[in-house]
Specification:
heterohexamer; A alpha/beta; B alpha/beta; C alpha/beta; C: alpha/beta; Hypothetical Protein Ychn, Chain: A; five-stranded parallel sheet; 4 helices; 5 strands
Chain lengths: 96, 130, 124, 124, 96, 130
């Protein structure tokens, strides 16, 4: 299982499509930095069906005033949870 | 576990270095060993010894230095990426006939081979990009 | 609505989110300096830049201060023309009630008129 | 097609065009160094990265040398597994005959298998 | 008349939509750096109808091996032509 | 006409500085006056005096310096953007209690007000971004 991180909003950069194309069936995607904007209910559709595999970093949501605006299907983790995700994954790939 | 980080974003311009330092603290808090931070692409600018950010902002160079001093983390700067961007230690400055230097210990100029080594020999390599 | 108040001397376009990069901060700095030098300044938020105005922002990683305090100081610099691309709000499910400050929303055809009306346009 | 030859130790993903940024050059440098240290290296070109392989490139602004000479040296470093995202070629109206070097094209489902098969993945 | 420059490919970044949205009826758009990829026949459709207003920088096309691959409707100019475009425009806005 | 350029991209990492220098030469060849190059955001890194690019690559710092020496172009570096990123002249280094300096004449640290001035007082301002 690979953990993919994404730090761009799907409204600005198409790199999210590359990340999705490279994901295996059990891989996970963590939205960080400007990427957390993708957790908004109106934007989360860009990620299609990622049930239980789509995460967003709490600290980055909070810094942007978006913590209370996340789509329900996004799993919110803090920095400690980010480390846990990297422990559980065989490797981590950064998309930017 | 033994962790390595790869930092590819410059300080202040992008969040990458901030994210890397926040992640580094969380790694250490979870009792892993943060062995190496490798700086590549614009990440090498994080080693600029003359950085003078406003006092109410985090001083990234000092924060990285603290990782070395407190936790023994090695701070490795890609030499090829650094020279192009003006980051020279005293030895490289002398070799290029320049006065002064822009990078100081505990940051060290190393070859890219050390990134490959870190990636293959550590348990985890996490990249923070601009 | 396009009216005379949009015809400042300096238009600063803000297209980046807070925290992820320094573009927003550096764009705001340019606006504040222009205003401090007595220029009439208009801010135009488009694309991801509209998220700069979302209420309830905090400090960034490592406690890096965000841009919300700067935005709250704009009135002190007599920067009161804040234009926002309506489509960018819609795309993100945001309304003007979600924003920190009162703004004027622009429909697409008004963007070009805004750029044309300002002698100096800085795009961040 | 996915076969054993894709199972190198180091996968370098190249996603940027030549000249516009240093990502392509720096990614290739990482690949060359890994190969020089005796690692089996696979290159994967996706998105805009496929334009790195277009034949007939020249020097950049101010005579800055491009990455084409480096690509032509890959065989000397025993880097001969060049994988290219088929969709990225299609989207740009390019075919393998337009490229500098022989490549293996990958359909979308093969991308994930390629990432999974390499212990170290560096994404540029 | 405003000259807009764009240095990103429409396949990677959505900033081209911002540039188009901000263009007045007589404005011009010059593709430079990685933006010249947008001059490829299969990508030029992203710019819609810009008859006589869409330019691409020759030197950047040549450096990328794309000089002979441009769509017919793109007007190719060299660095000297770039300067001429800035002379003719009231101002120049950079999209990146 | 009187031209000003705004350079916002660092050397090597992005093409912006290369494009700006190519444009600068074309401006001068068309007999305009290139009065000012203003460096902001990562563009300030173009003023790093210790830059040591490989010999077969253009030396961007020297190319900008030549614009000043041959054509009198003023090379203005935003002081706030520069300090954060470690670009200090001797005076700023002293003021921040640091040894050495990283930016030298003819590059000069100035306030952002000079960018606004250049934008409003020159006939043309052309921006090169990363």
């Amino acid at each position: 299982m690979i953990l993919h991180t994404l730090n761009r909003s799907p409204t600005e950069s198409r790199v999210y499509r590359q990340a999705l194309a490279a994901m295996g069936p059990d891989d996970r995607l963590l939205l960080i930095e400007d990427g957390v904007q993708g957790a908004l209910p109106s934007l989360v559709r860009h990620f299609g069906e990622l049930d239980g595999q789509l995460f967003a970093l709490r600290e980055d949501l909070e810094a942007r005033g978006l913590a209370g605006r996340c789509a329900a299907e996004v799993l919110v983790v803090d920095a400690d949870g980010f480390v846990t995700l990297t422990e559980e994954a065989d490797k981590t790939v950064s998309w930017f | 576990m033994r962790y390595a980080l790869l930092v590819q974003g410059g300080p202040y311009s992008r969040q990458a270095a901030h994210s890397a330092l926040r992640f580094a603290e969380a790694v250490i808090a979870r009792r892993h060993r943060l062995e190496t931070v490798f700086f590549y692409h614009d990440g090498v600018y994080n080693a600029a010894r003359l950085a003078a950010p406003p006092q109410d902002e985090p001083h990234l160079v000092d924060r990285f230095r603290a990782l070395h001093e407190v936790h023994g983390t090695q701070l490795k700067v890609c030499i090829a990426a650094g020279l192009r961007r003006g980051l020279l230690d005293e030895r490289e400055a002398a070799r290029h006939g320049k006065q002064g230097y822009s990078l100081e210990a505990p940051f060290e100029l190393t070859g890219l081979g050390q990134l490959i080594d870190a990636g293959l020999s550590h348990d985890r390599l996490i990249t923070f990009s601009p | 609505m396009h009216d005379e108040s949009m015809n400042g001397e300096v238009l600063v376009i803000l297209r980046h989110a807070p925290h992820g990069s320094s573009w927003l901060r550096e764009g705001l700095d340019a606006a504040l300096v222009a205003a401090a030098f007595g220029r009439r300044v208009t801010l135009l938020f488009i694309g991801e830049g509209v998220t700069a105005l979302v209420a309830g922002q905090g400090a960034g990683a490592l406690g890096q201060k965000g841009t919300q305090p700067t935005l709250e100081m704009l009135a002190m610099y007599d920067i009161d023309t804040l234009l926002v691309e309506r489509q960018a709000l819609d795309e993100r499910g945001l309304g003007t009630a979600d924003l920190l400050l009162p703004v004027t929303t622009l429909a697409p055809p008004e963007l070009a008129a805004t750029l044309a009306a300002h002698p100096l346009v800085l795009n961040f």
